[in-house]
Task: inverse folding
């Protein structure tokens, strides 16, 4: 090789980097374009009101107090259903993760019931618990239960066996191995499951509130649709999006606090 | 504490891994166990420490462990086996938490073990913040904190780079000079065996049987000196000559299933 030439750079890329401004810019651009198209009359207000009209509808809900009533009712149902479903799911899922007999007994039942769309069971729950709150809470709880069971026992499986062997080599009693090794080691998987079940709870609360509910975001959206109030309907959808973001932010904060060792 | 292994035999699903291992280890002795891949070195260590039940044979502990020993048979693991959610001090303290010690006594023992392994300044660090060598120091501190009678080291340096391995070998020798225990040291690395052991047990390829026991007469403390290099190299050559052919066969067996 007599001639000297610089070696061509072929590396770089394929490594996601944080871009703080891009998401904001895209969000502002989409809303701005939507508002502009509405203002120019390109989008019929009857079918797709402008962002400003949706904000105005939300403002009206705040001033007449209906926003608090609807959001409060939905949050109460989500909280109750999610906590009950998660508590039961964790208990059963951890038992299946720890005890072979519990897994052998539980796995066929979970496999059979998990794929059922839980909203299909709402009429059954209404028959069992009545049209009021318990049937809605039961639908959410049941919907949250199975993914939590699966998340918990698969998270137990993912705990490195060498850690359990280490604990046994130091003579830790089985209960201490569960609480000091298995549960903290399974926490990343369990928290990932929480993200999924929070979304499921949000979907189910809206569906459940569309049957026999006076208050709640689902009831509000259904009522706005029946009255052809598309700005109110989209205000309800916006509330759901904000609620989803808030839940995601809370879970993110919990993950950062609990899993700061990662 | 002396150890006596009598007729240790072990099978995995009908596959004979160890066959009739008889061995005596004297109190305070360091015995290295080497052999080709799959010869049952780690299985033997698991049986000695009570983590595996042998298919046949028994392990006898002769004599009482020191009075303050909380876990007479204690492992140091190849992959460190640290809890990533606990800091260094809490990882070391894990070994003490079920022994009913007072908090002050626990703290004192942990501080002593950390000081002995050069980790005093890293008590609050998480494992992810430490290098491989430092992580293994935590594993060693966790083993020392229970004042073991028998230290079972399962390839403790094999996950480390050559320089760190060299440093940790020196540290292990310094620690062993201060903390009396009997040591079984499983390794692939013939240099480690030649530098650290009083005797080297050479196992045959599967099923593992004792093929030869090599005694190294030079005191361990003298083997780091430049003048000891020929002796250490000679032991290494002897060990390699003993396992070379079987190591090649074992490698082929692994490659071809």
Result:
């Amino acid at each position: 090789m007599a001639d000297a030439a610089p070696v061509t750079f072929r590396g770089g890329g394929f490594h996601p980097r944080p871009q703080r401004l891009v998401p904001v810019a895209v969000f502002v651009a989409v809303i701005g374009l939507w508002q502009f198209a509405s203002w120019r009359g390109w989008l019929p207000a009857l079918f797709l009101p402008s962002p400003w009209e949706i904000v105005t509808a939300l403002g009206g809900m705040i001033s007449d107090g209906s926003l608090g009533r609807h959001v409060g009712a939905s949050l109460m149902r989500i909280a109750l259903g999610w906590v009950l479903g998660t508590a039961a799911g964790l208990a059963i899922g951890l038992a299946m993760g720890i005890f072979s007999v519990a897994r052998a007994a539980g796995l066929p039942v979970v496999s059979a019931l998990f794929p059922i769309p839980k909203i299909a069971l709402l009429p059954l729950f209404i028959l069992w618990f009545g049209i009021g709150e318990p049937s809605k809470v039961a639908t959410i709880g049941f919907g949250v239960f199975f993914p939590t069971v699966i998340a918990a026992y698969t998270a137990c499986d993912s705990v490195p066996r060498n850690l359990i062997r280490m604990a046994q080599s130091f003579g830790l009693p089985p209960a201490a191995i569960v609480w000091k090794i298995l549960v903290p080691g399974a926490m990343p998987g369990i928290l990932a499951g929480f993200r999924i079940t929070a979304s499921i709870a949000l979907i189910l609360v809206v569906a459940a509130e569309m049957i026999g509910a006076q208050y709640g975001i689902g009831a509000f959206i259904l009522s706005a649709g029946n009255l052809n109030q598309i700005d109110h309907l989209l205000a309800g959808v916006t509330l759901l999006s904000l609620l989803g973001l808030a839940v995601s932010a809370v879970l993110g904060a919990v993950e950062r606090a609990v899993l700061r060792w990662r | 504490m002396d150890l006596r292994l009598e007729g240790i035999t072990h099978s995995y699903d009908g596959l004979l891994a160890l066959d009739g291992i008889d061995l005596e280890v004297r109190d305070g002795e360091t015995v290295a166990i080497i052999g080709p891949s799959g010869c049952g070195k780690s299985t033997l260590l698991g049986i000695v420490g009570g983590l595996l039940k042998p298919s046949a044979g028994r392990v006898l502990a002769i004599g009482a462990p020191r009075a303050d020993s909380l876990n007479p048979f204690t492992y140091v693991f190849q992959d460190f086996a640290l809890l990533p959610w606990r800091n260094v001090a809490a990882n070391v303290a894990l070994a003490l938490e079920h022994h009913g010690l007072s908090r002050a006594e626990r703290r004192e023992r942990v501080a002593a073990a950390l000081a002995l392994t050069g980790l005093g300044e890293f008590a609050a660090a998480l494992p992810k913040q430490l290098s491989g060598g430092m992580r293994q120091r935590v594993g060693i501190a966790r083993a020392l904190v229970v004042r073991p009678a028998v230290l079972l080291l399962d390839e403790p340096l094999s996950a480390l780079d050559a320089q760190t391995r060299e440093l940790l070998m020196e540290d292990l020798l310094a620690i062993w000079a201060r903390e009396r225990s009997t040591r079984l040291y499983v390794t692939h690395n013939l240099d480690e065996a030649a530098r650290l052991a009083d005797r080297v047990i050479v196992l045959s390829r599967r099923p593992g049987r004792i093929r030869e026991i090599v005694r190294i007469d030079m005191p361990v403390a003298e083997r780091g000196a430049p003048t000891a290099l020929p002796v250490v190299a000679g032991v290494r050559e002897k060990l390699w000559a003993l396992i070379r052919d079987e190591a090649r066969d074992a490698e082929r067996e692994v490659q071809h299933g």
